[in-house]
Structures are given as structure tokens and as C-alpha cells.
From TrEMBL:
The lineage of its organism: Bacteria, Pseudomonadati, Pseudomonadota, Betaproteobacteria, Burkholderiales. This is XdhC family protein. Pfam families: XdhC_C, XdhC_CoxI. Residues 15-72 form the XdhC- CoxI domain. Residues 174-316 form the XdhC Rossmann domain.
Amino acid sequence: MENLDVTVLRALRDWRQAGKRAMLATVVRTWGSSPRPIGSIMALAEDGSVVGSVSGGCIEDDLVYRHTQAYAGKGEPGHQIPSGPPSFVKYGVTADEAHRFGLPCGGTLELLLEYDPDPDTLAALVRALEAGRLMRRSVRLDDGQVSLSEAQAPEELSLRDNLLVNIFGPEYRMLLIGAGQLTEYLATMALFSGFAVTVCDPREEYRGAWSVAGAKLVSDMPDDLVLAFKPDRRSCVVALTHDPKLDDLALLEALKTDAFYVGAIGSRRNNEARHQRMIEHFGMTAADLQRLRGPIGVYIGSKTPPEIAVSVMAEILAAKNGVTLPRDMEVAQAKNAQSILPNQAEAGIVCSVARS
């Protein structure tokens, strides 16, 4: 499953190139709780086809009904065929509307509706995104004129000075080292979370059992592939083989990049041994290894491969979304705390006996 924004823009491009009338809806403001974040987009074609989402579904239903009726010439007074400059619409202003449209209590959102976006500009934007470029799309509100430029870093949607600016990026990428069972679960979750997944394993016996459609499987040596993969700010690298010969060099190369997440599976002891190897044999310092995550995942008491994959995916998504998790959710921290408790209890018993 690819990046949702790219999917929406590609569908909108195809509709417009085919001569269909269509609309692009963007969440530009929210108040209180909102089911979709600012910057979320949805495309709606004249026949009622929808790609993307601006809410939990009820607002989409209302937009589809109003605009397909208008396109069919059956619109209510004041709801003729939509055209012209972009316009704003609010949902959830009153408690009744919030209930009607399924918004959380007190939730309100505002959409910008763009009518019949230019197909050539859409095609240029999609080409840039497919080429892995981060793009800025600016819309003049008085006439709907769109301009494109390459962005250097992700930015929040802005709406000021008669201009809407939204940043669209290429899909997030995940590189997994090792094609074992855990990798299958993690790759599946990553695909459904919008990542493009590449799995690297030079071991033929593991590649032969691979069964996740949609994930690219390659046989290169992991460190060579990291160099070719060129991880950027929208990439993560996860080593899952437990084999230092495969994991260590790949991790060292990944740490030289802008990848937002670099980590490896393993116990606390294995993680300490990995750090020691990298310091002794590869000249790394403790500061160099601060970005290397391990043991990876959030602590949920996971034991089985699917549970461990949930744990790891949760940590990756938190890092992607800029969320700093509490330290007691780290696997190492939680297990260290658990190992202390029995010792404390034992010490309490000993002291009690001694006092008696």
C-alpha cells in the first residue's frame, strides 16, 4: 500500500486527464478533536468515486451526495455544478452537526475545496513524487492558480496571505535486513501503514520461503544495499537476522544517513555486545551509536513474532510522527525495572527475617 497522498493525487490526475470533472478537498483547520489531521486530502469525481479521506466517512458521504447531485443537475438551490475559485466549508460547527457527521465531541473541521484542478500540473506533481522528491504545492485562493516547487524539508500546512501551501512527500520507505518470520509480520504492517518495503537477505534458504506480496525482496549483501538504498529522512532501516555478519555493517552504513529510525532486534545483552563490537572493531564512539535503537520496540510483554512486530511497528510509527515515548516504554528500561523488583522483594524478606 503506497503513500495515501500519492494515491489520491494519482487518481485525481487520471480523472482530469480523462476529461472528468473532479474536486480536491483539503483539511485546512480543525478545532477540538478531529478524525483526520490538517493537510489530509480527498479526491471526488463527478460520478461519486472517492479516494482518500477527510473524516471518518460521514463528511465524505455528505460531499459525495451534494456534488454528485449538483453534477447531475439535481442540486438544491445554491448547490449548482461546482466551479470557479476554491471555496471553504465547515463541518461540526454545532453539536447537532458534530453528531450528524460523526465528529468527536466538540470537533470541527474546515475544508478547502478546489474544483477541476489542472491535469498537467497534477501530472507534474505526481511525476515528482514518484521520483522521490519532496514537493511544495501552493494554491492562490482568489483564482485557484497552482504553483509547484521542490521543498527542502517537511512543513506543516500553512494558510495565509491568500495562499494555501501544502507539502507532499514521496512515500516512506522501510529496509528490512533478513527475511525471517518476524520480517513477514513487520513488512505486512509496514505496507498497510503506507511504507514501501524492501527486504534484503543474501541467504537463499530464507528468500525461498518469503511470501509477502508487495514487499521487494533482494539478495544483495545488506551493507551494499544500504548504500544503494540511500536512506533519507523518510526512511528507516531495521536489522532482524541476529547475525552480526549481516546486521552490523548494514547498521554502520545506515547510521551515516538521515534515516529517521535505525534499529536492530536482540536482547539487552546482544545489544550491548553489538555496541562493544562497533566500538572495538569499527572505531565508533558511544556518541556515534546514540541513534542506534536496540532492543527495538515498545514494551508490551510481546513473546511471539506477530506481537514483537506490533511492538516494533509502534516504535517506528512514533519516531516517524515525532512522538517521544516515555522511557518506561522502552524494552530495555522496562525489563531492567522488572529485574530489580524481585531483588527488592527478596531484600525486604531478608531484612524482615533479620529483624525478627
